[in-house]
Write a structure and sequence with these properties.
It is built from 20 helices and 8 strands. By secondary structure, the chain is mainly alpha-helical. The chain has a single domain, classed as Serine Threonine Protein Phosphatase 5, Tetratricopeptide repeat (Alpha Horseshoe), CATH 1.25.40.390. Belongs to the SusD family.
Length: 497
């Protein structure tokens, strides 16, 4: 026993010597972060070329999968415009209102939008420190980056509700600045009203500093004053307690900006009339310095992808009596089905607004018809039903559709406007947000139907979609991704997830 006790003591002393010598060596070693990270206040944009590259990176975002695909998928397949298509369970969850917090589309979009904001912060925080950049160009970049950031936050607050407001670009992480930058590294979600206030503030900067849109296509391929007014109109219409007078004010500013409806609806999408008179803010797939390879067309046509956003029974019916908008929105290709129940169905519908598959397809963030119909909403909400219907008819006249009947009530006017937006803006990523804005999501989406073949009667019966009644108020906001919650203790989950 005595020998065992002595041996233990010797062992304890040896371990102690090793530990203390190890600690001494460790304490003499500089923190790794101080070796690899420059000070936070180091000049991030050293010259004009750095600044130009930084603003270019904001534009390159529109070649990302969020803008090339997910934006349209959420707006259309999340609504009654389209069915998911493809073969991904995560996409079916969105289409069928049964999203879970581990859905990878939800996770990537949360990360994308927050990362997009960080790129904008780099320009906003540092462009005024660039020594060889003219004051005019500094202002232009500040205006452009501010409008980019406003748009990205707007997508975030519409999708998740409360959303982080990060304004600092983190150029380094080290022992001296960690406590200071911690709120930006692990941000909390901010109240919806605060997020909208930040969006409006950025738009106001863009109104002053962003370039004016001209009749040249190139001016419409980047943030501009017309786009700032269009986004403000959308923001004031969507925020809690909408300010319809502001919607009218900013819609009028757009309308007075020299934009006109194109005489031929199909010119909007044929990729031969880029940067046209109706375009307010357009994402350019080629030329004029574009750095985007527009791969979105292949996703929707299924040329080398599993085809997504299959046109719905609802949109097909709504466009059935329209020739011009139908042929520009939906294309049916000859198809042979192996299933005997579908032998008589020889043509399969595809969305047709994205149709150029050589990576040059343009798409719109805002165009005039969208803003005319948004102003119509505002007029309806302020009691001018006649003025609202006049704007709807202006849009319909362009596609040779007859005037609609006068609205009999505010709700009737809103329904007529939403129906017009449904057919005018189908496959442009708008419908999900339109229905949410007007509080009509559950009312409309819970009644979705489709034609189901009846082998007894050998006809197609119109039946309720199996998942239509899944939708609840909780589904109107996406969950915060579980992986993000696990990594950031300052975030909270949305109800129902």
């Amino acid at each position: 026993m005595k020998k065992y006790s002595i041996n233990n003591k010797v062992l304890l002393v040896c371990i102690s010597v090793l530990l203390f010598s190890g600690c001494s060596d460790f304490l003499d070693t500089k923190p790794i972060t101080s070796e690899i990270s420059p000070p936070q206040d180091a000049q991030v944009l050293k010259n004009a070329q750095d600044a130009e590259n930084a603003i270019k990176s904001c534009y390159q975002i529109f070649g990302n999968e969020y803008w090339q695909f997910d934006y349209f998928f959420l707006g259309d397949a999340g609504s009654d415009v389209a069915y998911a298509g493809g073969d991904g369970e995560d996409f079916f969850q969105i289409d069928e209102y049964r999203i879970i917090s581990t859905d990878y589309v939800v996770a990537r979009d949360w990360n994308h939008l927050n990362d997009f904001v960080k790129l904008c912060n780099k320009v906003i925080n540092y462009v005024n420190t660039v020594p060889d950049l003219s004051p005019q160009r500094k202002d232009e970049m500040m205006g452009e980056a501010s409008l980019y950031r406003a748009l990205f936050r707007f997508q975030g607050v519409q999708t998740w509700g409360e959303f982080p407001i990060v304004t600092e670009y983190i150029s380094s992480i080290n022992q001296d600045n960690f406590e200071t930058i911690y709120p930006s590294l692990y941000p909390s979600r901010k109240p919806v009203t605060d997020v909208y206030a930040a969006i409006i503030a950025d738009c106001e900067v863009a109104l002053v500093k962003a370039p004016a849109a001209t009749s040249t296509p190139a001016s419409k391929y980047k943030p501009n004053k017309g786009a700032a007014n269009a986004l403000l109109a959308k923001v004031y219409a969507t925020m809690p307690n909408p300010d319809w007078a502001k919607v009218i004010q900013h819609s009028n500013a757009v309308i007075a900006g020299g934009y006109t409806l194109l005489p031929t609806y199909d010119f909007l999408f044929d990729n031969k009339h880029e940067g046209n008179a109706e375009s307010i803010w357009e994402i350019n797939g080629e030329g004029n310095g574009s750095v985007i390879s527009a791969w979105c067309t292949d996703v929707f046509l299924g040329s080398n992808w599993k085809k997504f956003n299959t046109p719905s029974h609802a949109i097909s019916n709504a466009l059935a009596t329209e020739n011009k908008r139908r042929t520009s929105s939906i294309k049916k290709f000859p198809t042979t089905f192996a299933d005997p129940y579908w032998t008589s169905y020889t043509q399969f519908p595809n969305p047709w607004k994205m149709r150029v598959s050589d990576a040059t397809q343009n798409f719109y963030i805002f165009r005039l018809a969208d803003i005319l119909l948004l102003k119509a909403e505002a007029l309806a909400h302020t009691g001018d039903l006649t003025g609202a219907m006049a704007l709807v008819n202006q849009v319909r006249t362009r596609v040779s559709m007859p005037n609609i009947a006068p609205a009999t009530s505010q709700d009737d006017a809103i329904n007529k406007i939403l129906n017009e937006r449904f057919v005018e803006l189908a496959f442009e990523g708008q419908r999900w947000f339109d229905l949410k804005r007007e509080g009509k999501s559950i009312e409309v989406l819970s009644k979705q139907t489709y034609p189901k073949y009846n082998p007894v009667t050998q006809v197609f019966d119109i039946v309720l979609m199996p998942y239509a009644t899944n939708i609840t108020a909780n589904d109107l906001l996406w969950p915060i991704p579980q992986a993000v919650l696990d990594n950031n203790p300052n975030l909270s989950q949305n109800p129902g997830y």
